Amino acid sequence: MMLFKTLLLALTTFLITTALGAPSQHMARDPGLDKPTIEPPAPNLDWHLTRLLKGPIVEEVKFWDNGKINQQCKDVFQKNGFKIEDILMFHVHYSDCYLPWTMCAHKAAQWTAPLIALNIGLIPPNMRVWIRHVIALPGEARTSALNFSVLIHGQATMQDIFASAAPGFGQGIMGDGKPYWAKQPWLDAYAADSAVLNDKAKANQKENFAQMNVVAMAEFENPGCWKDAIPQLEKLRHQVDVIKTELGRYFNTIEGVKCEARWLVDTPVGLPEELPDYGA
Questions:
Q1: I need a surface site. Which of 65, 88, 145, 266 has the fewest CB within 10 A?
Q2: Which letter, b or e, does each residue of 267-279 get, where b requires 16 or more Cβ atoms within 10 Å of its Cβ?
Q3: Which residues form the signal peptide (predicted)?
């Protein structure tokens, strides 16, 4: 298992380094934040994330062989102009949760099922429960989020994949319809800092939270881990610390920690002709 993980991590690092600097499309850049980025802006953090985050055992990656797909995969493929017959459905069972995650990938997607399984597993279990599905497509490197699902396009970076999982987490755990990035503790922390992580974080508070959540998630169990990769992290310290203080319990990956519950219901499953077409 350790050899398998090492090989997959090496392959992941190779794939994602070709996409450094690729644009992320989590959300529109409006109205925009007025703080500058740290100098230099944070680099791609994938190499560090693979070494800092502790994932569970991937107990099973099982492809479906019954011809069925789920509704969200069908919708995403049709919306993006891909053929339904190119959908590969699979589920992933992790050792830290009692239910598997349903995922799908295009046959030509750069992010394959084993790579997706391993890297999504690096997200702590009680944050990961706020991912409904993961959908991988070929194309230009970017990520997006849709109805608590993460969409991976092309050779997207791990950092952007984790950032695309953050808004669902930041909204789901609140329970009152008001996402964490709109709460006063987060806004106060932002006001107390003098910069943001990178250009993506300048888009709005939703994207800023998404980017900072990746940093805080890794630092929660690895204090001081970013001093070399992000020399000016102290300019972001209030944002990092408020996430760690208020949301840190969801980042726990110590041995024995399990997912507390699976709150999100999978989209309907059926044969392609049994499920409504996108936009119908």
A1: 65
A2: bebeeeeebeeee
A3: 1-21
Q: What are the residue boundaries of the structural domains of the chain, listed by start?
A: 49-265
Using the structure block, give the residue that is written with the tokens 């997200």: 123
Give the DSSP letter string of 45-86: -HHHHHHH-----EEEEEE--SS-EEHHHHHHHHHTT--GGG
Q: Per residue in 33-71, is it b (16+ CB within 10 Å) or e — as a string?
A: bebebbeebbebbbbbbbebbebbebeebeebeeeebbb
Least Cα distance to 220 among 251, 253, 185 occurs for 251
3-state secondary structure of 146: strand
The whole-number pLDDT of residue 176 equals 87
160 CA to centre of own chain: 7
pLDDT at position 105, please? 98
Task: Name the pairing type of β-strands 101-106 and 133-137.
Answer: parallel
Q: Which stretches of the chain score pLDDT less than 50? A: 1-30
- Determine the Cα–Cα distance for residues 41 and 229; give it in Å rounded to an integer: 10
- For the segment 248-264, what is each residue's pLDDT rounded down to a tens digit? 999 998 877 899 888 89
| Residue closest to 133 by CA, chosen among 71, 46, 50 | 71
Structure tokens at 101: 């995650």
In this prediction the pTM is 0.87
**pLDDT at residue 24, as a whole number:** 39
Exposed / middle / buried, residue 212 (Cβ in 10 Å: 0-12, 13-18, 19+): buried
pLDDT one-digit tens code per residue, 99-158? 999 999 999 999 999 999 999 999 999 999 999 999 999 999 999 999 999 999 999 999
Kindly state the helix (H) or strand (E) to which residue 210 belongs, with its residue range. Answer: helix 205-220
What is the Cβ-side half-sphere exposure of residue 211, based on CA atoms within 13 angstroms?
Answer: 27
Alpha-carbon distance 22 to 39, whole Å? 19
